[in-house]
Amino acid sequence: MADTSVHKRQLVDWSAAVRAGIISGFVFLAVTVFAVPYFTGGNAWVMIRLFASVILGEGILAPPATYDLSALIAALLVNSVLSMAFALLLAYIIHRGGLLTGILGGAVFGLAVYCIVFYTMTIFFPWFFAMKGWPIAASHILLGAMAGGIYEGLEVEEFVSVTEETSEKEQQL
Questions:
Q1: Between the CA atoms of 115, 65, 25 and 56, what dihedral angle is there, to the nearest 10 degrees?
Q2: Region of residue 105 (phi > 0: left; psi between -120 and 50: alpha; otherwise: beta)
Q3: What's phi and psi for 12, nearest 5 deg?
Q4: How far apart are CA 117 and CA 75, in angstroms?
C-alpha cells in the first residue's frame, strides 16, 4: 500500500532578490568607489575604470584617471548586472533561512565572489590582480551580507504543497 504525504516547499521571491541586488549593488559601488580609494590611497575614477574595463577592456585603465562618461556608464552597467545576478543566485541558496542566515550566508557568499573574481577571473582580466586586498574583500563581504539581509527582509514567504508517494518497501529502507 502506498503512503501519500504532503510536504511544503518554500518558493524563492525573485522580485525581492532583484530589489536586494539593486540596493546592495549601489551601496557596494559607493563603498568601492569612495571608501576603497581612501584606504588604498587611490582615486575614485580608478575604481570606476576598473569596473568599466570588464566591458571596455584594458585600454580604459590608462592614465589619467579622470572623468569619462563612457567609463561611468559601463561601470554602472557592469555593477548593476553583476549585483543582480549575484543576488539572484544568493536568494536561491539562502531563501529557506531567516535574516541571520541571509546576512551570514551572504557574507560568506560575498567572500566567495571575491575569491572567484580576484583569484580566478584574473586569467581573463589580469589587471584585477593589482586590486587584491582587504578593502576590496571587505566591500565584497558587505555586498553579500547586505544582499542576503535585504533579500530576507523583503522576501514574501510563499509555500507550495508537494505530494510524495512512497511505497511500503521505500518506507522500510
A1: -80
A2: alpha
A3: -80, 135
A4: 16
On the CB side of 8, how many CA atoms lie within 13 Å of its CA? 6
DSSP letter at 155 equals -
Quote the domain boundaries for residue 148.
12-156
Phi (first) and psi of residue 132, to 5 degrees: -65, 145
**1 assigned to some structural domain:** no
d(CA 54, CA 49): 9
CA distances from 94 to 21, 39, 48, 105, 163 (A): 14, 32, 30, 7, 23
Question: Is residue 162, in this structure, part of any structural domain at all?
Answer: no
Residue 168 lies in a domain: no
pLDDT per 10-residue tile (average), the chain, 173 residues = 70 94 95 89 88 91 85 95 96 91 96 92 85 91 96 89 60 54
CB-count exposure of residue 67 (10 Å: 0-12, 13-18, 19+): exposed
pTM of the complete model: 0.83
Single out the residue of 68, 101, 173, 172 nearest to residue 60, CA to CA: 68
DSSP-H helix ranges across 31-120: 36-40, 44-56, 69-94, 99-119
Is residue 35 assigned to a domain? yes
The number of folded domains in the chain is 1
Q: Are 75 and 48 in contact (CB under 8 A)?
A: yes
